[in-house]
Amino acid sequence: MKKLFVILSAAIIIAGFISAWNYHIDHLNDVDQAYVKANKDKPGVVLVDVRPVEVFNGKAPRAGLHGGHIEGSVNFPRSEVIKLINLEDVDKALEILAQAGITRDKELILYCNTGKHASDVASYLVKHFKFKRNKIKNYRGSAVDWLKNPDNKVLPEDHE
Predict the structure, then answer these.
(1) Is residue 6 part of a domain?
(2) What's the CATH code of the domain at 72?
(3) Could you tell me the CA-to-CA distances from 54 to 6, 75, 101, 120, 159 in Å, in that order?
(4) Rounded Cα gap, residues 3 and 77, in angstroms
(5) Of the candidates 147, 122, 154, 146, which has an alpha carbon nearest to the alpha carbon of residue 136?
(6) 44 Cα distance to chain centroid
(7) Ramachandran region of residue 141, left (φ > 0), alpha (ψ -120 to 50) or beta?
(8) Number of domains in the chain
(9) Residue 135 lies in a domain
(10) What is the pTM of this model?
(11) Looking at residue 8, what is its pLDDT?
């Protein structure tokens, strides 16, 4: 009985370390608003809005949140990335991503409303499509953070 207790305790401790390590890895590439502003228009950088098309185009996702997108960003919704995973044809998926300017050689800055779905997409790109983790940045706070500054432009200007 004591041996079983020791084994179970060790398994729980190891699981905790693995969970903490994965959290740390997932958040290594979080960036802030200053980073986005300084880098979004540089050659070789693609700013990607992973929210649904209608939100990108100006519809409010829900009460209290604004729709629209950061000027210069491309839209590739999280739901579309999930469809590419289910496609199970990596070459075809990479071709579809490339049509949106999302390629392995570019630095990608991903954003959504708060950064959670963008973080998910970053993980999907690394795990399923072999993008390099150091080339993908997650804008922590994302659109909510961007809109805290009234000087930041969001398109379309008549967004909800």
Answers:
(1) no
(2) 3.40.250.10
(3) 53, 10, 20, 20, 11
(4) 49
(5) 122
(6) 17
(7) left
(8) 1
(9) yes
(10) 0.83
(11) 54
Query: Angle of helix 116-129 relative to helix 78-87, nearest 10 degrees?
Result: 20
| Residue 84 · residue 97 · CB < 8 Å | yes
Q: Give the three-state DSSP class for 126.
A: helix
Placement of tokens 């209290």 in the chain? 64
Whether residue 102 lies inside any domain: the answer is yes
Q: Which of 43, 39, 159, 62 is nearest to 111 (CA)?
A: 39
- Taking a C-beta distance cutoff of 8 angstroms, is the pair 110, 48 a contact? yes
Tens digit of each residue's pLDDT, the chain (160 residues): 666 555 655 556 555 444 444 443 455 699 999 999 999 999 999 999 999 999 999 999 999 888 999 999 999 999 999 999 999 899 999 999 999 999 999 999 999 999 999 999 999 999 999 999 999 999 999 999 999 999 998 999 877 7
